[in-house]
Each structure stands twice: as C-alpha cells, then as structure tokens.
Amino acid sequence: MRLHEYQAKQVFSDAGIPTPASELAGTVDETVAAAEKIGYPVAVKAQVHVGGRGKAGGIKLVEDKEEAREAAEDILGMDLKGYTVERVLVEEAVDFVNELYVGVTMDRGEGEPVAMVSTRGGVNIEEVAEEDPDAIAREHIDPAFGMHPYQARKVVYDAGVDRAIANDVASILRTLYQLWDDRDGADAEINPLMVTGDDEVIAADAVFNVDEDALFRQPELAEMEEEGEFAESELERKADEYGFDYVRLSGNVGIIGNGAGLVMTTLDLVDHYGGTPANFLDVGGGAKADRIANALDMVFSDENVDSVVFNIFGGITRGDEVAKGINQALEQFDEIPKPVVVRLAGTNWEEGMEILNEDLVTVEKTLEDAVQRAVEYAEEVEA
Ligand code: GDP
Ligand code: MN
After folding, report:
1. How far is CA 15 from CA 212, 235, 336, in A?
2. Could you confirm whether 101 is annotated as catalytic?
3. Which of 22, 201, 259, 284 has the maximal Cβ count within 10 Å?
C-alpha cells in the first residue's frame, strides 16, 4: 500500500525530516489560495500513485497568481498514466543546487534491509540505477541492531556527498530507516533530497510504501489509505464493479487468466520472453461470456495495452464454454482493437480450440507459444 506524497511528507516531517511548507488543494481556487498563502514561487504537484510525475507534466513551478491558476487548471482533472488527478500539493518551491537520492528497502537477494544514497538524485535515478549502478552507494543493515550512526556516515561518504551537508544527510537517512522499521515500510524514499545554496537539506519528494500484511498494526497509515482512495484509477473502479482481482502494471501486454497462480505464471512468462505485463487480471472461476466480455473491456480500455493473452485453464468451467464466451465477446466489436492470443488447457480444451473463431483471435496450443506470440504482437505495435 502506497501513501500519497502529501501523506508520506506528513509522516517524514513528524519524524523530524525537513520538508517544504505545503498545502493540499482539490480545486483551482483552493490551489490559488494556498499559493498566495505560501508565497511564490511554489510547485503545484499532482497527488496520484505514479512515479515520474515530473516528466509526465504533473508538476509545475509557478511564479504568480495567474500561473498558479493556469497550473491548477492544467493539472487538476488531467490523466496521469491512467489516474485522474483530483488533488494537488501546493508547495513552497525549493531553490536547489543539487538533488540527492536516499532510500531504504528490503534487499531480498541478501535477506537484509539496505540503505542507499546517491548524489545523482532527481527524475533520472532509474536510469542511473541501470546505467551506472555504482553511482548509488549501498549499506546493508542488520535489523536486530538497526542502523548504526557509523553506517549512515559510511554510506553517505561512499556516495560522495559534500562534507558540508554529510552529517545532515546521514541523520535524515537514519530517521528514514527508523521510520521504515517502526512503520512496517516496504520502500521509503526521498528523491530528490534537495540541497540549497546555503547547505540546507530538504525532502522535496517523499515515497512511503507500507507492507500490506502489517497494516493491521499501523492504524494511522491504514486510515491514510482510506483517505487517499480518491485517486483510484478508472480501471480500478471498473475492476471493483466487475468483481475482478486486478492490478495495473507498467507494460503493454494485457493478461487475462483464471486463477491467481495461473495469471502470475503468465506474467512471469511475458517477462521471460522479453515483454512487459500491462496488468494482473484474474477473472476467477466460471468464466462465462459476460465475464470474459468484461475482462476484455478492461484490457481494451487500458491505453497502454498493445496485445492481449488469454490463459485459461478449464476445470469446472469447460474449455468449450470459455471459447464460446470469447467468441461472443469479440463478435460485439466491428474491429478488434488489439490482437488477442488464446491458450486453453484443462477440461474440453480441444473442443474449445475448435470452437474459437480464428478470424477474431490467434490460437496457440502451448502457453509458451501463446505468450511469445502476444509479446511479438506488442513489439510490432511499439515499432
Ligand atoms: P516525481 O517526478 O513524481 O518523482 O516528482 P518529484 O517531486 O520528485 O519532482 C520531480 C522534479 O521536479 C524534481 O526532481 C525537481 O527537479 C522538480 N521539482 C519538484 N519540486 C521542486 C521545487 O520545489 N523546486 C524546484 N526548483 N524544482 C522542483
Ligand atoms: Mn521524485
């Protein structure tokens, strides 16, 4: 479960991490009022659960009332990677000379938490992590002892952080680790941690993801989750309405299956064959025509999806019924918006394969072939 930036900043600020003055706004007038109160320049920042808001146009720096109004009009209601922006954080702009990155997460490979620091923070940290992993200093932490002060100093020093601010950064990192530990964090991140001309260090962004399974003992964070649900995406709303287990992911291969394990396997295979999954969608048992039509409606209305792979295992639901469902659902379209690949297994799979209308879908016998084909289709669209 992910906190919004404004919520994570509240948690960080309560723990003593410096954050800019800010106010949440839900309308254009509220945005302007907050900007006037805080004083220009201010940053107007979309509060949605996606990374890379800066690059996607969800953050604007404004110098006066007129610009504040324009920014609010632009950002409020905009679609940011499938999420409608319903609130913005209006925040005192920081005049920075440097952007650092600090983060704490679980290193599953090592089976230990890891603290990370980089002097190359800001919007390109993902690229830095990929192209130049050494630019991010890392220090593993024994959870039984917590983060020793010397460990914080060491990782800050290893990252090459300027001496003038090294102590402040180390202290912020220790606070971040403590929060991560106390509040059952999954990931805690400040990117950028901005450095000003007079050596002040201030958290300009805040990410805090909470371990879902621990929410029962973090009532304050659970409440924040409920409070923040306004930003649920259109697709998630649809999934609730249809009664599907659905998670939107960042790729372009749409996935529909019955049974969580089967869907997970399909996801892994898409990844294995060089594609990227667009979603997790489990239609559950009894996949009748209307359920299949609803599932297709979901993946087709996701603009990121370029191809779709159906992976259905017939149990009580027989393969021929599923095949009829797929045909019926697709016959409703004058033109199939995205290529669909189907693989059936289990009860009556052979009858099912015969029934499937190959003018509407591509049929593959094995899961491997079906996934590969869907990945190829997606690549063709991308090219
Ligand atoms: P993200 O793109 O969703 O991670 O959003 P961030 O809050 O990290 O902002 C992205 C980028 O916008 C930062 O790296 C800055 O370059 C810029 N930015 C954000 N807030 C401020 C601010 O207060 N002042 C200035 N000058 N730039 C800002
Ligand atoms: Mn950021």
Report:
1. 21, 35, 53
2. yes
3. 201
Q: Token digits for 285?
A: 């048992």
21 alpha carbon, closest ligand? 1
Mapped onto helix, strand or coil, the DSSP state of residue 381 is helix
Ligand 1 is surrounded, with C-beta below 6 A, by 43, 45, 51-54, 59, 61, 91, 93-94, 96, 99, 122-123, 191-192, 204-205
Backbone angles phi, psi at 287, to 5 degrees: -75, 80
What pTM value is reported for the model?
0.71
- The tokens for 72 are 């609010």
Contacts (Cβ under 8 Å, ≥6 apart) of 107: 113, 114, 140
pLDDT one-digit tens code per residue, 259-315: 899 999 999 999 999 999 999 999 887 667 788 889 999 999 888 899 999 999 888
136 touches 117 (CB < 8 A): yes
Helix orientation angle between 289-300 and 319-331, rounded to the nearest 10 degrees: 50
How many angstroms does the Cα of residue 102 sit away from the middle of ligand 2?
A: 11
Residue 91 annotated in active site = no
The number of the ligand nearest the C-alpha atom of 102 reads 2
**Among the options 6, 83, 101, 177, which is catalytic?**
101
Nearest one of 178, 122, 185, 129 to 152, comparing CA atoms = 178
Helices 149-159 and 163-182 pack at an angle, to 10 degrees, of 130
Give Cα separations from 188 to 10, 52, 100, 283 (angstroms): 13, 16, 14, 33
Ligand 1 centre from 194 Cα, in Å?
9
DSSP reduced 3-state for 374 = helix
Q: Tell me which of 189, 236, 321, 364 is the catalytic residue.
A: 189
